[in-house]
User: What shape does this take?
Amino acid sequence: MFKEFLFPLTKYFTPFNIFQYITFRSAYAAVTSLLIAFLLGPRIIAVLRRLKAGQEVRSDGPKTHLVKSGTPTMGGVMMILAIVVSVLLWQDIRNMYTWIILFAAVGFGAVGFADDALKIFRKNSRGLSARVKLIGQFTVATTVATLLYIYKTPYTTQLFIPMFKEPVIDLALLWIPFAVLLQVGFSNAVNLTDGLDGLATGLVIMVSVAFAVLCYLSGRADFAAYLQIPHLPGAGELTVLCLAYAGACVGFLWYNTHPAEVMMGDTGSLALGGILGVLALLVKKEILLLIIGGVFVMEAASVMIQVGYYKLTKKRVFLMAPLHHHFELKGWPEVKVVVRFWILGGLFVILSLSTLKLQ
Assistant: This one.
């Protein structure tokens, strides 16, 4: 919005020329979203406490988590609000990607909000039924995939693999179900990871910064040609979104770090995961997302392995799934699990960015 209103005034006031630069707007988008989340945090937490929007802790989980019962949840509202406001202020609102990303954030967040609300009013940890929750997620994901297909670029339906210069296959119409599954899968992967104070929030910060780099490089014809990656006009604007996304998470982490004053709930985790899925689709890093978000993949895989193996053998591979609970039950303190998973997440991000020079 600032770009649309202030950049045209450059002829009257030269310093307004700065608003044409993505790097400038991205930096201030990060600061804006961070401040919004940070400043609104105490007010939103107070409102959630008045509404008695407390977290219901699983009775079959680690006993150390029982003290968290009653901690305000649905804190994802402050992140979504910070992201939306910051993006509308600093990103190019004429860019189609802006509105698709915001729709995904609000759409997945709305599904999570409904789930959280039911958990609170029913005073249990169930929320929406798995069927209804998936229907909501698939509806949002299908809408996003359809829009991207309708307004597709020459690269939209092509599938790229890290370290390969050319696309390995053109999925054509099959790209739509692929795109839907990627969004829903990653939305749920982040949701499964959000089980310890600050764990998912810290990991999302790293992944969003990595995507900021990828979006900026993909939007620049010179950098894209040098690195031999698809040049995607307009993708550079997503750098603003990525850093607004990171800033909102940093602001939220102030209140979400151990011991957490507020939980993001499904409102936040489904939205954050959904955004990552859409970003990967937009900049053609669908497969690379599995490396960038390696910890999220591990967490989701641990649940699938646990459930599948138990159905076959009536035995468990892990002490408890998702994976972070396994290490808690092995005796690791919660903070140690979180920090070590953050370290692992950072290594995955470095590994993923290194593939850009291995093409």
